[in-house]
Amino acid sequence: MTKRFTAPTANPILKTIMEAGDFGILVLDADGRIVAWNAWLAERTAVPEAQALGKPLSDELTGAPQSTLDLVADVLATGRPRLFSPVLHKILIPFTKPSHQAGRISPIYDERERVSGVVLFINDVSPVLEYERFATSEAATERREREEIFQAIGHPTFILDKECNILAANRAAAAVTGCSAQELTGRKCYEIMHGAAAPPAGCPFVKLRTTGVMETAETEVETLNRVFNISCTPQFDDAGELSQCIHIAMDITERKQAEEALKLSEERYRAFVKQSSEAICLFEIDHYPIDTALSTDKQIDLLYAQAVIRECNLIFATSHGYDEPEEMLGFKIGQIFPRLAKENVAYLRAFIENCHHISDVETKEIARDGTVKYFLNSLIGYVEDGRLVRVWGAKQDISRIKQAEENILTLNLELERRVLERTAQLEAANRELEAFAYSVSHDLRAPLRAVDSYTQILVEDYAASLDDEGKRVCTVISESARSMGRLIDDLLAFSRIGRTEMRRSPVDMATLANSIFFELTTPKERGRIDFHIGPLPRTQGDPALLRQVWMNILGNAVKFSAKKERAVIEVGCLLEGSGQTTAVYFVRDNGAGFDRRYEKKLFGVFQRLHSSMEFEGTGVGLAIAQRIIQRHGGRIWAEGEVGKGAVFYFTLDKGV
Amino acid sequence: MNHSEVVDILLVEDNPNDAELTIRALRKRNIANPLHVVEDGAEALDFIFCRGAYAGRDCSKPPKVILLDLKLPKLDGLDVLKAIKADEQTRAVPVVVVTSSQEDPDIKKAYALGANSYVVKPVGFEAFLDVMSSLGLYWLLVNQPPVK
User: Fold this and answer.
1) What residues contact residue A30 under an 8 Å CB cut-off, 6+ apart?
2) What gap in Å lies between CA B59 and CA B38, rounded to an integer?
3) DSSP class of residue A602?
């Protein structure tokens, strides 16, 4: 067979194309033998040109697949060029490395328009494909990531178009509105958020449409009853026109509530601290909080070194002699709470040892003018992580109270002195009274005795010289003297009641009353008297004095009922008072009684309501009884009616 | 008065009426023992301790009983009592306090100082007679004196 082609290398242009072109060129003649095999191909197939030339393509040398051979045959037969794509054909001629190839098979026509061979142009498109694959996956990842971020935003987030239509809504938006993202999409933002037909006043998106920059606003969302901080971020298209907006609604309801609460708390604090009538101050620990594990002494040192007034109210300032709280800011604790005063150090010690808390303890402090002030002081320390960070102090100025206390003390002393003085005066008066009683009993009785005795002597020794009238007169003189003697004795007895010391012990009133009745009466009298004695509670008192009471009252009952044919004397007791602790003893008789108009006189000394002819007596008995009952803290009174009898009552504490 | 005479009853009484009535009461009950009256506390002590006006008296023969009033000029009856009871020689002599006073403190003080008896003189003459005579009978006849 003749060679119909000249080597392309003969032409310098073709040679350059063959050698420098970044693609493979393979020329086959009409018989399918390789007539050209450029260096690009040689390099990728590892088949040198010399080895390839003159060989058929089908040769094992090139390893070309049947599809390539079929395409070549088709072009040779039809004279129409064929394109080769990596998708359909994958490969024209295998390279030593895996590759994706694209190319074209073009027929070669001779001067007679006959197909005399084909040219195969082969391109390795692997890098392009790889890049495309890479680019495609990048975009997908980015989209996915962006979607994930959008969904992951914890705050309800919409993407809006220029007309407030929701283009997308995230999970948080769906959760908070109760609608799915699909349901939200396409609706107006303000419909969803505000249930309104138009954007509300202050809507940040409306603002953004004029300003073109991100806008935020706190908006109350009525439909959800919550407060949101809404941020609208614009997005622009390639032409710089606003295309859409990222609308993030941050729920700040809790924060708003916390802010409100804080505001209220602050207001309350201000109100309490500023208006308080107590002096309040805050000490902060400068430099470094005090380690509460340190010894008490060391902590006291540090308090004096580092505790500084940071805040105080007006009362605190004024109680230290300053006009404004600001003047005291920065004061060290020692400036108002001197360490020289032992009680102050003791106070801080107690504060530290009592878990940094102490209340209502009296302290002495120094005011601006140097005067000593007394306070009722309380301290509360705040310990964080085992370190004392600040101390709140509250105290009341009790200087005036202290002053008053001192005044009271002085007054008390004065009072005590006066009581002593009075007591001394009283004692002196009592001594005088005793001297008087002594003198009365001694000096008055002797002359009386002389009157009586000498009258008797007269009667005895000079009876012969006296006629009957003379003897009667002597009798009157004697009786009068003896009667005066009794009066003196009774008066002395009465005065003694008030002066003798009382000895209290339990007294069995029933036994006492009963035995006295027997003492006072003869068997004959008892035959005439119906004596009834009811249960009488025991009492607490002086037995000798109470004996005297029964003696006088029962004695009266016996005496004043003596003229009755059947005398009835009844002794009993009632209980009165809360708890029934007061015993009201009574003695009732059916004797002579008394006129109620003179009731008051009954208990007076020497007051008699009956003549001594009718009933004998000096009129001291009831006065003595009254004095004894009064000394026991009781009352005594009487009821009566002339001719019908009398009742005498007296009260005493019921014995236990 | 002859000071060497033995005196059984020493009556210390400043009131001459009471002294006379006492003597009368004793005599009326036939108590005729020798009796001497002194009018104040100082004189009483002079008599008892045989000094002053009574320096010549025989001190070895003390009275069988002393009737002592409490309210006395110069030296009080209680002081007299104290002096008698403080002395070894005279401590044993019975002292009967005879007075108008019923005041508790006097009675207590008298007994505390060693009085052998305390008698209140009644106002009535009959009662006075009874008291004084039984006194004399008891101390002079019933009671055994320490010194024979």
Assistant:
1) A4, A76, A115, A116, A117
2) 17
3) G
Helical H runs in A200-252?
Answer: 204-211
Residue B125 to residue A437, Cβ atoms within 8 A = no
Question: In one letter, which amino acid is B67?
Answer: L
Please name the amino acid found at residue A428: A
Determine if the pTM surpasses 0.80.
no
SS3 of B37, please? strand
pLDDT at residue A119 is higher than 60: yes
Which residues does chain B have within 8 Å of residue A450's beta carbon, measured at their own beta carbons?
Answer: 17-18, 21
Secondary structure element (H or E) that encloses residue A478, with its range? helix A468-499
Residues of A in contact with B121 (CB under 8 A): 445-446, 449
| Chain A residues inside the 8 Å CB shell of B125 | 449, 452-453, 455-457, 478
Q: What is the ipTM of this complex?
A: 0.71
Angle, vertex CA A471, rays to CA A467 and CA A476, nearest 5: 145
Q: Are B67 and B12 contacting, i.e. CB atoms less than 8 angstroms apart? A: yes
DSSP SS3 for A315: helix
CA A208 – CA A190 distance, rounded (Å): 15
Token pair listed for A545: 């004095």
Cα distance between residue B101 and residue B77, in whole Å: 12
Report strand pairing: A34-37 vs A24-29: antiparallel
Confidence at residue A2, expressed as pLDDT on a 0 to 100 scale: 41
Residue A50 has pLDDT above 50, yes or no: yes
